[in-house]
Design goal:
Layout (H helix, E strand, L loop, with lengths): L1 H16 L1 H9 L1 H7 L41
Helix pairs in contact: 1-2, 2-3
Length: about 80
């Protein structure tokens, strides 16, 4: 999980520092992520959305398999 988080952070930093990469990531997320070494299962789609000063996106992740209860997860 830490490797995926690091990879995510590197992609975000690259998008913040490189306007061409940011535009490509928004326009073609699957192709761009693949070029960055991100493996996604076939049939998965990706949407890239960007927060602004007035719009913040809250992503609700997919519930893990196994029916874990909310209290099983630590709130950070």
């Amino acid at each position: 999980m830490a490797d995926k988080r690091m990879q995510y952070n590197q992609i975000v930093a690259k998008a913040w520092g490189n306007e061409m990469f940011r535009s490509k990531l928004i326009r073609d997320p699957l192709g761009t992520l693949k070029q960055e070494g991100v493996d996604l299962p076939p049939g998965v789609s990706v949407q890239v959305v960007e927060d602004t000063e007035k719009v913040v996106h809250f992503v609700l992740p997919k519930k893990p398999a196994g029916g874990e209860q909310a209290e099983d997860f630590a709130v950070c």
